[in-house]
Fold this protein.
Amino acid sequence: MRGLICRIISMFIAIISAAVLASQFVQCHRFVEKANASNAHEMNLSELGDRVLIISPHPDDEVLACGGLIALLSRNNALVKVLFVTLGEGFTFALEQELRTVFVSTQDRLRFAKVRASEASKALSILGDTTRNIEVEFLGIPETAMGQMWLRHWGEDNPCVKNALKSCYSHPFTNGIKPFALCADKVIDQLKRSISEFNPTSIFIPHRHDDHIVHWATNVFSLAALMELRYEGKLDGRVGVYEYLVHFGRYPEPQGNFPKLPLLPPKMLSEGAFEGWIMLSLPKDIVTLKAKAIKAYESQRSIMPRFMNSFVRSTEVFEKADTSEHLENGILIHDRLFEPVMPAIRPSADVKSILVFCSGESLTVTVNLRSKASELIAYRLHMFKPACSGNARYNLVVSVRGNGEFHEVVGISQEVVLCQRVSESLVISFPKQVLGGFATWLVTFEVITGGRMVDRTAPIIISIEGKRCASHNEAALSMSCSKESL
Ligand SMILES: [Zn+2]
């Protein structure tokens, strides 16, 4: 009887294993077919020039998304600089596992920051020669402060002290920053200094649609720094800016160790055709090196091996960053649906799209939500004007509750702002003239509840001055949107 049960169990296990293998085979086949049908361009390394800068939010992102690129550039004798914005010391779960502690102190965060920095050095030394053609710099900006600073800590008189104390205010690395009053301006200044010192021919930054708030903030801060450097004439307009993706839903698909499969952009960001994406094919020995470099990040691999192994693929993918200016009449930005956690519970926290347009003498932002705006949520339009020709940086913030009440207004008189809730949309409008002589803006839209940013759209760069605005006409607008991105 016992023998019969054992046989039934082993048959059952064999059937399940066969089913898993079959599904993996079908999945792989589907991905290879997709790759063959792809319209993505093949990356030409010589077009990147001989000084390539990779701005990485955490130690490990540079290897996950650009490990093959770094190894190939290094082999071609190009100079690569990896600029780590944070040291990832805010990843409490990984820290607890690594240091085997549950009561995390500031000292623990510093110890963990050191672990992650040494893993970065080890990983990069696998990919190339760190004494010859791979440079490393750690800015050491406290991880948990990144999103907060973009939201509300501008100016040295308004530092992000709470986060700084929680994290590592005084940085232990000699090649990193000196302790400073943490604020958004300092992050932009540090990025500008580092970029102009290196004088890159190409720059890689996190993708504007990345789910992770530190990656998103790194994208926004990098764009702000690049805009200012261009205005100051310190960055050649021909320097290519590329984006790489790390966190986006279940990306990379399929999850798991499939080194022979190509890494493909998520369907939602590529409309299935991969147009605009650039693919870098990796020789087998480079894939092996990349796998080895990923293994150097033990503190991360021990808790998410499947996710990290999913980046060991036969290709890497990048998208050219959109750093041009828009707003002939309007611009429509789609946001992804079903973002993690909060919007799933509270659909009114989920932005579907935003439409920025000029109508007569007004600038109007229409925010389409997944359900009627909630009074418990703050919806925040943030327009950043980079420093330019003697003008200081300028922030314009209009934050409203779901019932249309003002929550926070900065840089503009509240009296001139109109806000309406129309069905599942919020419409924020103000006179174009209040923007004065400020021509180019970096626009972000954030959703905040319980002090946390739970949704945000990809940043966009718009130019207002010097364009004749069309009359308010939705049909004309949809015809003339200068860009529609997903
Ligand atoms: Zn990261």
Observations:
- The chain has two domains: 41-320, 330-485.
